[in-house]
Amino acid sequence: MVAPCITGRRQSVWGSQGKRLPQTVSSSFGCGKIFRTGEIMIPGNTIDLKKMNYLKAYELQKQIHQLRWAGAVEDTLLFVEHSPVYTIGQAGGWDAIKVSREYLKAQGVEIHQVDRGGSVTFHGPGQIVGYPIFHLDLVERDLHQYIRFLEEAIILTLAGYGIQAGRLAPHPGVWVGQNKIAAVGVGCKKWVTYHGFALNVQTDLRYFELIDPCGIKEFGVTSMSKELNGAVSIPEVQELLQRQLEAVFGLSLHQRALPELFEKQRRYAGP
After folding, report:
1. Residue ranges of the domains in the chain?
2. Annotated active-site residue in 5, 31, 188, 214
3. Read out DSSP for 22-73?
4. Model pTM?
5. Which among 107, 131, 246, 265 is least surrounded, fewest beta carbons within 10 Å?
6. One pLDDT digit (tens) per residue for the chain, 271 residues
């Protein structure tokens, strides 16, 4: 049974494009507690990488991870949309892929073994992938709680569109009934996080038919467009999702271009 987390009402707010966006104004999770203690909103960065190859984005994550650990940049959230790719986490999952590598290559689908938690999952067009590179040494050093808060931000975002979602223990991620709508798989080194989450907005769900997503055979997969029976604006969902992540983690994320981030690092390093 999915554990519902939303008790808040809905209201509309103005987005950056002058459009009304749904917003959830309260949640039952943690009795309103935010992950970062205190009332000060900590400044950070958000960078929209648009469409980017998985390995290129992964290398970028590692660069920013090192900068965050060194204190050269603030907490940084990367948004990206990948071309079709299957990734396999530290729990393994090659046996959960139902077709050959040759078949996937012929279909233009990449496959990579990576150092996040979890098993096999899919990333591709129509999906919002988020890579929070956050320094948990400033908070509670509780990686399980960190994952719960990522899930909570996604749950609140979906509630804003009238989709009631929750958790399905013991499986991580966000679920609508017995169908997963968002995968969560993180990495953490030196208390700085990387990897993150993938929310199916209007993803081609046929890609999931070629695997047992996250190694789970008995449950299904869904998307926002399937649940709402219509097209959904990815930029609007991403904007609301960023606001919910800010609220849950106590951050104030400022939009930056990638060169700006590395310019800050050069200023930090000095001549």
Report:
1. 42-269
2. 214
3. EEE----GGGG--SS-SSPPEEEEEEEEEE--HHHHHHHHHHHHHHHHHTSS
4. 0.83
5. 107
6. 444 333 332 233 334 343 444 543 334 333 334 455 456 789 999 999 999 999 999 999 999 999 999 999 999 999 999 999 988 876 656 666 777 788 888 888 888 787 776 678 889 999 999 999 999 975 678 899 999 999 999 999 999 999 999 998 888 899 999 999 999 989 999 999 999 999 999 999 998 887 765 555 667 899 999 999 999 999 999 999 999 999 999 999 999 999 988 887 776 665 5
β-bridge pairing 179-189 and 10-14: unpaired
Q: What CATH number does the domain located at 42-269 have?
A: 3.30.930.10
Q: Which two tokens stand for residue 123?
A: 């990333």
For 204, other C-beta atoms within 10 Å of its C-beta total 14
